[in-house]
Write a structure and sequence with these properties.
The protein has 390 residues and is of the alpha/beta class. Helix content is 58%, strand content 9%. The strands form 2 sheets. The protein has a 5-stranded mixed β-sheet with strand order 3-2-1-4-5. A two-stranded antiparallel sheet has the order 6-7.
Length: 390
């Protein structure tokens, strides 16, 4: 049997085809509860059926776990692929039943391979990484809000304290939210303030801040601004502690994951980068080659040529953008510090390659190292330029 499920938040739609591609009855509504799942399994009959559904948000996860546990083959389809298939069928009407029937037709005609879902440890890392990303985004949003309030109440503050996200900034602003508060605070009291449990603000910085506050052009010093600044500083301190706790939890899970632990042996792949790779990919060794793994990330050239136009190469726009974006920041540091990536990057630049192209090539080289470590289950041993010359 071939089946397609149009996934929704509370009610899904199932369409079925027999072995010859003929519809089996009308599409069936499946509720997101125990009764609906019983109806789904009864409608599919004995396993294995090939079931195709779109990976829509998180709504597919319970369906997937239930169907796989019963022995069915489940394919998670990118919504873009599903939409292109329907367009190729010249389907112009869109309903849940029609979408489910199109997914069943895709299963019958294309016979896609069942999707791979990472193991429990990788799934736990995925949840922690996503939670950390949300907290980090909230943290950065609060920093922007704090910057706005400081610009209104004490714009000269950023000349003396670099980085509104630092513990020094939040400790000072919690004590004195505006220029008016700094101006009436004795420098000696401010100098004794500890901002990380150990270091003090110091007399020099305290005196310069108080003096600048007395001459500040900031005009917003009311209780409303004091309250907002103090609340944001409290939020930043809380999220900073939570991010630290999450990093510890991620590190603990990574130590218990064989591939994740080995990935940190690659110079340039830290715990957060390794955790993100495992969270998104699972085991990189599941790909048939290092090139296939790089293609999944999207670090492959795309040839653009049409008619008489001379072909040009650029990075493809496909692939896993989240992982590519996370590794991009890693690469910016790696091409400056790594003994085995820096010479490679510098050689490309010396050959006239643009910086971005050289970085993409270096990222591909890094992904080949990731694949090699996962495939061989051995720590990474770099071959530097000096070793190759010897």
């Amino acid at each position: 049997m071939f089946a397609g499920i149009d996934v929704a938040s509370e009610r899904h739609v199932l369409a079925r085809l027999d072995g010859t591609g003929r519809p089996l009855g009308r599409p069936i509504g499946i509720d997101e509860d125990a009764g609906g799942y019983r109806m789904l399994l009864e409608a599919l009959g004995p396993p294995p059926a090939l079931v195709v559904m779109e990976a829509t948000g998180h709504y597919w996860k319970n369906l997937y776990a239930t169907l796989v546990a019963e022995g069915h083959d489940v394919v998670l389809l990118n919504p873009i692929v599903a939409r292109r298939f329907q367009q190729a069928q010249l389907e112009r009407t869109k309903t849940d039943a029609i979408d489910a029937a199109a997914l069943a037709r895709f299963a019958f005609e294309k016979r896609p391979a069942p999707s791979y879902i990472p193991d429990a440890a990788a799934e736990a890392l995925r949840e922690l990484v996503r939670h950390r990303d949300r907290l980090q985004q909230d943290f950065e949003d609060r920093v922007l809000q704090l910057h706005r309030l400081v610009d209104l109440g004490f714009p000269e503050f950023t000349r003396y304290v670099k980085g509104m996200h630092t513990m020094l900034a939040t400790a000072l602003l919690s004590e004195c939210p505006t220029a008016a508060a700094f101006a009436r605070t004795p420098p000696r009291r401010l100098a004794k303030l500890r901002y990380d449990g150990r270091h003090r603000v110091g007399e020099d910085l305290a005196e310069r801040l108080v003096e600048a506050a007395r001459r500040s052009v900031g005009q917003h010093h009311g209780p409303v601004y004091d309250l907002q600044v103090r609340h944001i500083c409290q939020d930043l301190d809380l999220w900073r502690r939570r991010l630290k706790e999450l990093d510890s939890d991620i590190g603990g899970l990574l130590d218990a994951h064989e591939v994740g632990r080995l990935l940190t042996s690659i110079d340039g792949i830290g715990p957060n980068s390794a955790a993100r790779i495992i969270a998104i990919v699972g085991d990189p060794a599941r790909f048939r080659s290092a090139g296939a793994f790089a293609a999944y990330v999207g670090v492959v050239p795309a040839l653009r040529q049409s008619g008489k136009r001379t072909g040009t190469r650029a990075a493809t726009g496909f692939g896993n953008a989240k992982l590519r974006r996370a590794l991009w920041m890693t690469m910016l540091a790696a091409v400056r510090l790594n003994d085995w990536l820096r010479p490679f990057y510098e050689r490309l630049r010396a050959a006239g390659k643009p910086p971005k192209l050289a970085l993409i090539a270096a990222m591909r080289k890094l992904l080949h190292a990731v694949y090699s470590v996962a495939k061989n289950r051995k720590p990474f041993v770099p071959i530097t330029e000096q070793a190759r010359a010897a």
